[in-house]
């Protein structure tokens, strides 16, 4: 069944217009509006004093139109995001022309009323109105075309990223698959009831590994899956595996790609616990500080601080890194290092519980 977060993402992706409530988008529009004002001033041969005066008046007018249009787009975007691109573009186009016409009328009659009509261009009311609407129509068409091309480029990039991630995910060697089956087979004779519980945990793990690359889960669900995996490994390794967990006061509704923690824990067991006949310890600490989540997984290494000559192919690490970067657009970070006979992996990513805000 499609989750609410996945539904919001799918609905948002149907609209090529950006989020005009975003400060970055509004800043870009203001910058483009100011560049348009400079171009309009430079297109007329005027004295320096007249040029500066015209630049101030044209900039003021254009910025009012820009900000009012951005506010209108911010309000109507949620209502047109389900429609096709042609209808959305038409609504945005005529909405901007309506704002331009209204602001032109307001500017013309305000300057006439307060006696500053000399600041108006030397043209009649109708000519002033239609000239502004004509310029606005050309600029709006170019901006909408730019937004459409940018949206198509993002869609193509995202599709290529998801395709590459899916290929990476299909190449992961699931050691826990074979280990879990052996554990279940051994328990079937000695403890059938426990074998049934382990089989249920294994089914949840296997189901999580089959989800699509663009599906999201919550931090709470990811922690639950990770603990199920550790329960299976604890039955197999017995007292050789010691686990210390710290996840107090964390937002369980934080969104992230599924099956992120399990491969990291699997690596810790495969390289740090299994090769050591005396076993070892895994420390997992999840913290939340100022809108950033940090997941730190530390495991002991065999004597000598080596990985018992077990060389990994880094597929799991690459898979996690690429999926996190794709979802959080470069704001996630994955680092790892060996330190004092331990191996530590640190994953940081922003706390987001509603991807319709991204």
List the helices and strands and how they pair.
Blueprint: H1 4-13, H2 23-42, H3 48-80, H4 85-113, H5 125-170, H6 175-190, H7 192-209, E1 217-218, H8 219-237, E2 241-246, E3 255-256, H9 261-273, E4 280-289, E5 292-300, H10 315-328, E6 333-339, E7 342-350
Parallel strand pairs: 2-4
Antiparallel strand pairs: 1-3, 4-5, 5-7, 6-7
Helix pairs in contact: 2-3, 3-4, 4-5, 5-10, 6-7, 6-8, 7-8
List keywords for this structure.
Heat Shock Protein 90, five-stranded mixed β-sheet, 358 residues, alpha+beta, 2 domains, 10 helices, single chain
Low-confidence regions: 1-12
Tally of structural domains? 2
CATH class of the largest domain: Alpha Beta
Structural class comes to alpha+beta
The CATH topology of the largest domain corresponds to Heat Shock Protein 90
Assembly classification: single chain
Q: Provide the spatial order of strands within the biggest beta sheet.
A: 2-4-5-7-6
The counted number of beta strands is: 7
Secondary-structure element order, N to C: HHHHHHHEHEEHEEHEE
**CATH architecture classification of the largest domain:** 2-Layer Sandwich
Tally of alpha and pi helices: 10
Largest sheet features: 5 strands, mixed
Proportion of beta-strand residues: 5-15%
Distance between the termini: 23 Å
Shape: elongated
């Amino acid at each position: 069944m499609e989750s609410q977060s996945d539904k919001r993402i799918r609905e948002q992706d149907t609209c090529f217009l950006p989020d005009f409530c975003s400060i970055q988008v509004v800043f870009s529009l203001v910058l483009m509006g100011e560049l348009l004002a400079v171009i309009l001033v430079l297109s007329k041969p005027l004295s320096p004093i007249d040029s500066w005066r015209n630049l101030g008046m044209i900039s003021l007018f254009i910025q009012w139109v820009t900000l009012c249009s951005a506010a209108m787009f911010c309000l109507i975007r949620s209502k047109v995001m389900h429609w096709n691109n042609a209808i959305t573009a038409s609504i945005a186009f005529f909405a901007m022309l309506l704002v331009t016409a209204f602001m032109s009328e307001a500017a013309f009659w305000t300057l006439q009323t307060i006696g500053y009509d000399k600041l108006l261009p030397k043209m009649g009311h109708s000519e002033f109105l239609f000239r502004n609407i004509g310029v606005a129509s050309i600029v709006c068409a170019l901006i909408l075309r730019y937004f459409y091309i940018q949206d198509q480029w993002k869609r193509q990039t995202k599709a290529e990223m998801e395709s590459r991630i899916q290929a990476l995910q299909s190449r992961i060697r699931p050691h826990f698959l074979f280990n879990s089956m052996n554990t279940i087979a051994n328990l079937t004779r000695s403890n059938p009831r426990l074998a049934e519980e382990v089989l249920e945990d294994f089914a949840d793990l296997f189901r999580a590994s089959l989800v699509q690359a663009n599906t999201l889960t919550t931090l709470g669900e990811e922690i639950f899956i990770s603990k199920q995996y550790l329960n299976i490994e604890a039955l197999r390794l017995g007292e050789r595996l010691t686990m210390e967990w710290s996840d107090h006061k964390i937002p369980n509704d934080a969104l992230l790609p599924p099956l992120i923690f399990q491969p990291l824990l699997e690596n810790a067991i495969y390289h740090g616990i299994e090769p050591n006949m005396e076993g070892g310890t895994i420390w997992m600490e999840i913290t939340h500080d100022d809108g950033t989540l940090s997941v730190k997984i530390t495991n002991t290494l065999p004597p000598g601080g080596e990985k018992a000559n077990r060389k990994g192919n880094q597929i799991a690490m690459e898979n996690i890194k690429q999926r996190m970067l794709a979802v959080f657009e470069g704001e996630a970070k994955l680092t790892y290092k060996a330190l004092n006979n331990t191996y530590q992996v640190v994953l940081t990513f922003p706390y987001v519980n509603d991807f319709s805000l991204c």
